[in-house]
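Lay summary

Proteins are chains of building blocks that fold into shapes. Our project writes down both the chain and a compact code for its shape. Here are two examples, one after the other.
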Amino acid sequence: MNSLSKKILITTFIISSFLVGLFFVIKNASKSALTLQRNVSVPDNTIETSKTAVSEITDDKKDIKQNPFPENVDNQPARFLFFGDVMLDRHIKERYGKDFAVLLNKLKETDADFFKGYDLVAANLEGAVMEGGAHYPPVNAYDFSFSPESVRDFSGDIFNFFNIANNHILDQGQAGFLETGKNLDKLGIGYSGCPDGKVGECTLKIIDVADVKTAMIGLSIVFQNVPKEELKKILVNAEAESDFVIVNIHWGTEYGHVAGKSQVEFAHYLIDNGVDLIIGHHPHVIQGIEKYQDKLIFYSLGNFIFDQYFSPDTQEGFGVGVDYDLEKITYELIPYQSKIGIPDLLQKDAKAALLKKIADWSDGDEGFKDEIRAGEIKNF
């Protein structure tokens, strides 16, 4: 073989090797791009909780509640505290956006020990948790979004669980729903609930609260009912796997103090299928309480943090403290009144007056209403 032929052969080999290598680079790059696209796509019909990698959750440890549900070290009753609607956007953000922690100051000033001793403190989070508090188009007339920092600053070391089943969790679309789960995971805050009218994996979370296995179920039936056949399976599982089954539910007619017929019927259905306690919200005002099959239904706790300053009723609410052990459950009613979004505990005559109104809106005999007026209900 002459020298010219050798040069041609070597050149051909080099070019062929280069082309083969280029083919595999392009193929692998395309494969990686396809994988990335699949990972970030959000199908419209997917209703599930966000499964965030451990490495993502632990990136910013200062944002994380390392032990959101304390262990029961002294064999005391498990203690729960529930509130109604929390909304950190719009006029609340305008006024308190630089320091959301101030929203709880009045409660702590009136009673320095108010939040102490509770194992779980929960509320309904009325909107999506988005990076930067972003609003995705289309922007609606009532369109709520909270940054992770605002939720962190508000919650502090107090709130460790939120219901996210409500009519505003999809304000930023399905992507906003999934991002909410991811951001709450990163903050170390527990949550449960699917969008309005839906049930699925996101409906139920079973957690250990001071050695009490607690099923936290989040439901929303503002615009449409949930499918009962699918819900029944969740309720059966919750009852079998836990000691205490709690439903947070978004429902009812706004600004009405008396629960509607459909609320009552659905509440009874839930209790008949294993639910031990129902905590309601959405009407933006207080609704009454009912005891059914020795289980309590709080139809609406009213607003907790909201910017509806237009009436006294939308600035009144009450918290529910629950002491649970195997022999008895005690419920404490904690009335408050808000001023420009900041709740403060009611005292003496003002407290008695609001408890009387709650009793008047409630269904039950005089003995039960006397307990409401006294601010304490005992179930043995």
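And here is the second example, written the same way.
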Amino acid sequence: MTALYNTAFLIWLLLSAPVAVWKKKYRDNFLAKLGFKLHSIPNPVEAKVVWIHAVSLGEMKASLPFIIELKREVKDLEIYFSTSTVTAYNQAKKVLKENVDTIFYLPFDFSFLIRQYVKKIRPDLLVFVETDLWPHLMQLVKEQKGVVALINGKISERSYKRFSRFPKLANWILDSLDIVCCQSEEYKKRFLACGVDEQKIEVTGNLKYDAFSAPKLLLQARKEKRRFITLASTHENEEKLLLEALASLEEVTFFLAPRHPERFGKVEKMLKEQGISYDKFTKLSCGLSKATKRVVLIDVMGELDKCYALSDVVIVAGSFISKVGGHNIYEPIRFYKTVLFGPFMHNQKELVNDVLAHKAAVQTSINQIHEDVKRALVQPIEKHLLEQFETAVKGASTRSLKIIQKKTEIFQKVACHKTTSMLT
């Protein structure tokens, strides 16, 4: 299986390399994943080392409460944090810098490459957040007597079908997991069906609910008469679809926030072609609350909280086209805002079920959204429903950490000597 995996990975790498080398935004990322930045990763100095991997921005944000609780509960701990995307890496540098010791790109999962990172970092505990499991990384950590855990675990419907067709592949990937803290009973059933030992699995809830409450400064009552609507995490074609569907709304400014920064220019071009008046956030001298044009293009990452705080309604995109599968609809709910989202939420099923069960958001369609937004501007979701929902769903970080502490001895011992002989 290892030889087949390495061959498939190599073929993929050769096919993707020209694009990565050609586009500057991917170049440093690509070189780092080839191991060229290994020298910049410091050797651990603390007695206990935890390596946490979160593939992209959503998983990175979800991991923060867990990381802070881990630091609070476990002393003399060094945390290495890896990710795979440019956006997540840049945001991690801002958001996690006070809570982790080292941030780096996860290298490609070739055994000869990963071996060097494991040998240098020597983790007592390797933690994956949600998905993105890498077989060689897990196997090499276990070879050096480390523990491998998955928090906020899930198996998407697509992955479940793939694992069902190739059970040997599923076993090869999942067998290295020592602890699985999964989001729901449904995901627990999928892990069991894929061959994971039931003794390894616990249902702990969704880490994304443990995102910190909105900053009090941003929760202050706003006095602006103009209405604001955030279009969050939009993908290709969604901007045009949504703006056209909501075109007849009057006295409204849209905060338009594309999901990926490489699309900022393309979205601006679309606004020009459609004759829509707009400002760019980075050029807005008066501040968001004083914006009067039809659209403010949020052309920088990390500013969505400000948009949510000012908005009367938030529409979370990635859910009006079928290929994405939805994004985190809980983030704007933290601000006690009326949140709407589309019909295509197949990657966020548990989140949708929880939110709708508590009447904490509205699921709509592109054909119905105009009427639903008009209604939301007049009759927003009552704050006490959002507060009840928030109280009901929190606690996954604490539960996950307790499970890991219970099922492993690494937090009770001081690892004065790291075993590396099996890696040489």
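What can we say about the second shape? Confidence is low (pLDDT under 50) at residues 414-424.
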